[in-house]
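All the exercises in this workshop are built on plain-text protein records. Sequence and backbone structure share a record, each on its own labelled line. The structure tokens are whole numbers drawn from a learned vocabulary of backbone shapes. The record below serves as our worked example for the rest of this section.
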Amino acid sequence: MTAVDPVSPRRLDHKASLTAQINAAQRAAESMQPRRLLDDPGSRHFVGHPVFRAMLARRLPAAAALRVFDWWWGGLHAHIVLRVRFTDDVVGAAIGAGVDQVVLLGAGFDTTSLRRADTAVTIFEVDAPATQAAKRPVTERLLPSPRASQTVWVPCDFEDGALRTRLVDSGFDPARRSVIVWLGVSMYLTGHAIDQTLADLAALCAPGSRLVFDYLDAEVVAGRSRWAGARRVTRMVARRGEPYRSGFTATGVAELLGAHGFVCRDQVGVADLLRRYDPAGARGLASDDWLGIVCAERR
């Protein structure tokens, strides 16, 4: 792992993450395309920025914006939309096998609670209070009534080491299998926070539980990435006050998870995701390979 561990890492908990809103806009724009790789129209309800809302007003402006985004930050759009497809496959298989607890760590504007409303499952939304304050009223307005699922809101800062306590206090049952979804978070955390979170998950997850976890290539954080788009994204997030702090190699991820009692069951990069979900290349998205995602099982 490559990581930067400042003594007092800056956090943006005083406002909802702009990154979460950008991701929601990308998912919504992809959902508008005729050859879409993701169907997540509910994401548009979490987009408040006027530029992004204007982009989503019509299909053609949305398509044009995605083409520019994909050209300038190659690989990022494919990862953002296809990590949702990958995760949905894992969650769907787990629910089919009887799992009824789903934990969204750093949930951002993820719409799992909306898309699984007709499923008898408890979804724990874990995130910084400011992002939850923006997300919760919108989600609760859109959720159908009655519904089969239950959404539990768990405000938490990953740097304070309280994840285990907060989840259990919110009704999470460590004796039952679960699916933990941890997307778009690890790259913004210190190495210590990642290690502490995995230790908490190891203690919380019953054998057979699944963890979906995405990560940034170590070369990106080290400033040596061969992908120009990755270098541009790194500079952009740093200027915005949400710098990348941690990155991994594929081998390093497997070793880290293994040290905490998880075994990798599936691990893919951007090019792998595109081969899996767009084998004919219908969307023509860049496959710059500087992000990865893994599904691991608690031993």
The chain has one domain: 74-298.
